[in-house]
Specification:
Elements: E1 2-3, E2 19-20, E3 22-24, E4 27-29, E5 36-40, E6 47-52, H1 56-71, H2 79-95, H3 97-108, H4 112-117, H5 119-133, E7 149-157, E8 160-164, H6 170-184, E9 187-191, H7 196-206, E10 214-216, H8 221-230, E11 236-240, H9 243-252, E12 259-263, E13 269-272, H10 278-290, E14 302-306, H11 310-323, E15 325-326, H12 342-357, E16 361-364, E17 368-369, E18 379-380, E19 383-386, E20 403-409, H13 412-419, E21 429-431, H14 435-444, E22 451-452, H15 477-482, E23 485-493
Parallel strand pairs: 1-15, 2-6, 8-9, 8-11, 9-10, 11-12, 13-14, 13-21, 14-20, 19-20, 21-22
Antiparallel strand pairs: 3-4, 5-6, 7-23, 16-19, 17-18
This protein binds 1,4-dihydronicotinamide adenine dinucleotide and magnesium ion.
């Protein structure tokens, strides 16, 4: 394993340790309580910013502002004007993309190559939603009633959206909530887990998005998040994060039966058949987990390998993992950054011990990295566990670290049952050169996405979301907009 050393990028203007306020009703304000929290660079421990810490009182203010905007001037804004606002925002994000990429890297540790690599996706999303803003429409529907009654539907914005996002991809996650809200004419109160979305909020203001349409209240889940998800003035919660928090949000939503969409975690199967192009499958299967240090909801963490090639293939994936360069994400050569926090480091290290106690064998990795340049950050070696059995905890629970659990299988029927034997259903992968097998397996897997001979392909026009405990609702694509719209049926007696 190589360790990155050089860090050529100098101090970031938005992460210089200074104080950042929250955005409510177009104003940058302190928390009502005056409280602040600190965010640190997970690669070095250095202070990035102190951030106004929102709680229930700030959520109240932000929801009230979002409601006023929704019922007031924003309701008069035409679709093409919303489109223009999103296009303007996209241009500003494009102009500032390098700065935003560095900010995400500083914030949560991902290699700069990865945060820069979200460019097309982030800009594509904003421009896709911009396009959709003028394409929303109801239908005229032929009915069978006696007499003459004309029926049609209107699509109307659902209202005030509470968006709660995790830390693992701050910019993308923010755009995924703000984009559809603006496109459909909703207003939004975003509760991020860190400060990067505040920079995006600045760009929203610069783009001319009116006060109250986008509000950003950073704070903790148990306070700000809980207040937002239980708030009677919120019409919908759009959440991305763990299934445990997803369950808390569903319970909190019961008070006013608000609409909820959930993009939760997974334990996604990535399946390699003996007839696959192994030269492509080795890096594909490795990076399906190691990318973003495993902190991706759809990571292909259960690596099912046909028994004939199991030893060879898993050995090659371990070799690949061993060669990855671990270090500070700002180094352009870094392939694996730190985990986001001490808490995640503890959690993932716990699973490394559990795997070994359960009898799995770490072919590479298996330990935290605490020496030299890595000693100040939260680094874990890319890990490949072999001899993993279906019932082990490392084969069932979301680890959210760079940990592959490699499992052997014999034939396709047995494989499908085992691959589906999970409470989750987010991503899945299939590696084979046999086209009919690829289609057959894709149809049999109970998951929201199936990637064949690739992994983690994403596009703004293609829906993404979960089956089972990976959540409900879709993000990206036309379905995403439907989550932010109500349908009204109108009946007009014409006879
Ligand atoms: P989390 O699900 O607790 O946090 C995600 C967001 O929800 C954050 O903004 C947090 O402040 C908020 N939140 C937390 N508790 C809340 C509550 N009671 N009401 C409303 N909002 C609340 O995830 P966390 O604690 O950051 O990570 C723990 C584990 O969750 C990870 O190790 C990973 O396994 C999983 N996770 C999965 C993600 C995914 O995309 N699938 C994303 C983040 C975490
Ligand atoms: Mg949590």
């Amino acid at each position: 394993m190589a360790v990155s050393q050089a860090i050529p990028i100098t101090r970031h203007p938005y992460a210089d340790g200074s104080y950042k306020k929250m955005l409510i009703d177009g104003q940058w304000v302190d928390a009502a309580s005056g409280k602040k929290f600190e965010t640190h660079n997970p690669a070095t421990g250095e202070l990035l910013a102190t951030v106004a810490e929102g709680d229930a009182e700030d959520i109240n203010r932000a929801v009230a502002a979002a409601r006023r905007a929704f019922e007031g001037p924003w309701s008069k804004v035409k679709p093409f004007e919303r489109q223009n606002l999103l296009l303007k925002l996209a241009d500003l994000v494009e102009k500032n993309f390098e700065e935003l990429s560095q900010l995400d890297t500083l914030d949560m540790g991902a290699p700069i190559s990865r945060t820069r690599g979200t460019r097309l996706r982030v800009l594509g999303m904003l421009r896709y939603y911009a396009g959709q803003a003028t394409a929303l429409h109801g239908e005229t529907i032929e009915n069978s009633l006696p007499g003459e009654i004309f029926s049609y539907t209107l699509k109307e914005p659902v209202g005030v959206v509470g968006a709660i996002i995790p830390w693992n991809s701050p910019l993308t996650a923010s755009v995924w909530k703000i984009g559809p809200a603006i496109a459909t004419g909703c207003t939004v109160v975003l509760k991020p887990a860190e400060e990067a979305p505040l920079r995006l909020a600045e760009l929203c203001m610069e783009a001319g998005i009116p006060p109250g349409v986008v509000n950003v209240v950073p704070g903790y889940g148990e306070t700000a998040g809980a207040a937002l998800s239980s708030h009677s003035g919120v019409d919908k919660v759009a959440f991305t994060g763990s299934h445990v928090t997803g369950q808390a949000i569903v319970r909190a939503s019961a008070g006013n039966l608000k609409r909820v969409s959930l993009e939760l975690g997974g334990k996604s199967p990535d399946i390699v058949f003996a007839d696959a192009d192994l030269d492509a499958a080795v890096p594909g299967a490795a990076m399906a987990v190691f990318a973003n240090s495993g902190q991706i909801c759809s990571a292909g963490t259960r690596l099912f390998v046909e028994h004939k090639i199991y030893d060879e293939f898993v050995g090659r994936v371990a070799e690949f993992g061993k060669k990855l360069q671990v270090g500070n994400g700002l180094d352009p050569n870094t392939q694996i950054g730190p985990l986001v926090s001490a808490e995640q480091m503890k959690r993932v290290s716990g699973y490394l011990s559990i795997g070994q106690q359960e009898g799995a064998k770490a072919l590479t990795g298996g330990t935290p990295l605490t020496e030299g340049a890595l000693s100040k950050g939260y680094f874990v070696a890319p890990t490949v566990f072999a001899n993993v059995q279906d019932n082990m905890r490392i084969a069932q629970e979301e680890i959210f670290g760079p940990v592959i659990s490699a499992i052997s299988f014999k034939d396709t029927d047995e494989l499908i049952a085992r691959a589906n034997a999970t409470t989750f259903g987010l991503g899945s992968g299939v590696w084979t050169t046999n086209v009919s097998k690829a289609h057959q397996v894709a149809k049999s897997l109970r998951a929201g996405s199936v990637w064949v001979n690739c992994y983690q392909a994403m596009d703004p026009a293609v829906p993404f979301g979960g089956y089972k405990m990976s959540g409900y609702g879709r993000e990206s694509g036309k379905q995403h907009l439907e989550e932010y719209l109500n349908v009204k049926a109108v009946w007009i007696k014409t006879g």
